[in-house]
Amino acid sequence: MKPLTEQEIRTAFVNCTKGEAKRLAVPRDLADVPWADLDYLGWRDPQAPGRAYLVAELDGLARAVALRSPTTAGGHMRRSMCSICVTTHTGGVSLMVAPKAGRAGQQGNSVGLYLCSDLSCSLYVRGIKDAGAGARLHETITPEEKIQRTVANIAAFVAKVTA
Ligand SMILES: [Zn+2]
C-alpha cells in the first residue's frame, strides 16, 4: 500500500470522533513500516491492549477503523482462522469488533471479524511471518492471488463498517 503519514492516518478514521482520532495511538515508526509488503496497516494501542486499529485503502482512499478486541492473547487456545488472510493460528486469532461509522455506530451497531491477533495478515500471506506448522490451508492458488484475496477481504470489511 501507499505510505501514509501520521496526519493522513488520523484523518482517515471513519468510526470514531475527530477528538478520538486526534488522541489515539498511531505507530511512531511509520518511516520504518514495510509499506510495500502491506495490504493494510494494523496495530494495537500499547497503553490499551483491548484497542486495535487498522488503515487500508478503499477505492483509492485511506480508511482507518478503530477496533475493540475483547479477547486478549492467551484466552482460548482453540485453532481459529483469520477471516482476512485465511491463516489458521492456535490462539493467534482474535474476535475484533468495529463500531459502524456515523449514525449506525452511535446507535450501537458494529461489525465483527476474526483477525490475526497481531494484525500481521499481510506478512503471513507473503510468508514473511510464520504462523507455525499447519497454519496455511493447502491451497492451489498463487501467492499473488492470496494477496489479492486479502486486499479484497479487508476492503469488504472496511466497506461494511462505512456502509
Ligand atoms: Zn490474518
UniProtKB/TrEMBL annotation:
UniProt source species: Kitasatospora paranensis
Protein name stated in the entry: FBP domain-containing protein
InterPro entries hit by this protein: EF-G-binding_C
Domain Elongation factor G-binding protein C-terminal treble-clef zinc-finger: 8-161
